[in-house]
Specification:
CATH topology of one domain: Immunoglobulin-like
Number of helices: 1
Shape: elongated
Radius of gyration: 36 Å
Distance between the termini: 134 Å
CATH class of one domain: Mainly Beta
Oligomer: single chain
Number of strands: 15
Helix content: 10-25%
Length: 211
């Protein structure tokens, strides 16, 4: 006995819906299996801490280090681990990446013996005799000025000082002569600090008893 066309369409739709439901069930079962496998990958040590034996990888070529850590205390027992990923970017061969510390910037006019410093005068910034940065003067209109960026010290090189630390007092020299002006190093700051060396007054001789 032949089946009416409308009934055949209904049966076909029901069959397709059943197939879709089966596929969804298979995907769900696969995901659950993966999650169970990840949980079992964490093994409990004798001290009750979780030791990740899986998902811990180091991809140095891409400068990416990923690790999996667990905290059984968050669930109250070591049998129900809590899995979390801690991602950090690091340069090859070094520890976790730290963002660079921004330099401190200084600018101002430069005066030598009461007159504007010649263009190209050397300005050095440092501390306790250790230079951190140097620059030369240039003209801004008719005024000789300078601008310099003083880098931050690298905390990983304890034997060498490459730059300033927060709040450190800096000294300035003009062509090797230390100025009376000083300034403190603060990361990302931009401070005006005009420099003067030599005599700061203009000498006017007496002529015929008048000045």
């Amino acid at each position: 006995m032949s089946i009416p066309a409308q009934e055949r369409l209904v049966r076909k739709d029901s069959h397709e819906q059943g197939g879709t439901a089966f596929i969804v069930m298979e995907i769900t079962t696969t995901l659950i299996s993966l999650l169970v496998g990840l949980a079992l990958a964490c093994q409990t040590t004798s001290k009750g801490e979780m030791m990740p034996s899986l998902l811990e990888s180091s991809i140095v070529g891409n400068d990416i280090i990923s690790s999996a850590e667990s905290d059984p205390s968050s669930f109250g027992t070591a049998d129900t681990p809590s899995l979390s990923l801690d991602l950090a970017i690091a340069p090859p061969g070094e520890g976790p990446f730290r963002p660079p510390i921004l330099p401190a910037s200084f600018f101002g006019a430069v005066t030598i013996d009461g007159s504007g410093a010649p263009e190209g005068t050397i300005i050095t910034v440092g501390s306790d005799g250790t230079p951190y940065a140097n620059t030369t003067t240039f003209l801004c209109g008719d005024v000789p000025v300078y601008r310099v960026d003083v880098p931050a010290d690298n905390p990983l090189t304890t034997q060498v000082r490459e730059g300033g630390t927060e709040g450190e007092m800096l000294e300035f020299t003009v062509n090797g002569t230390t100025t009376a002006q000083k300034a403190r190093w603060y990361s990302a700051s931009n401070q005006k600090c005009s420099l003067m060396v030599g005599d700061s007054f203009v000498y006017i001789p007496f002529i015929n008893g008048t000045q």
